[in-house]
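Q&A log
Question type: sequence-to-structure
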Amino acid sequence: MLTDQMWQVISAVLPERDPARGGRPRKYGHRLIIDTILYVLVAGCAWRLVPRDLAPWDAAYRWFRRWSALGV
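Response status: OK
Response body:
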């Protein structure tokens, strides 16, 4: 899991949410999503095998694909 120092570095790179564009409030925070993505990458497990104390696999996978496409 991310330490506070690691989160400060990573959060500076993430795109900002523009409230003027509207949209639904986020259900899961970016930090939880990053923790879930890191779990899958480090453990080498399938997305569907993510433990229940992390974000749902499909939400983390959507963010992973979006950020990968944007080059984040």
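Response note: Residues 27 and 53 are 15 Å apart (CA to CA).
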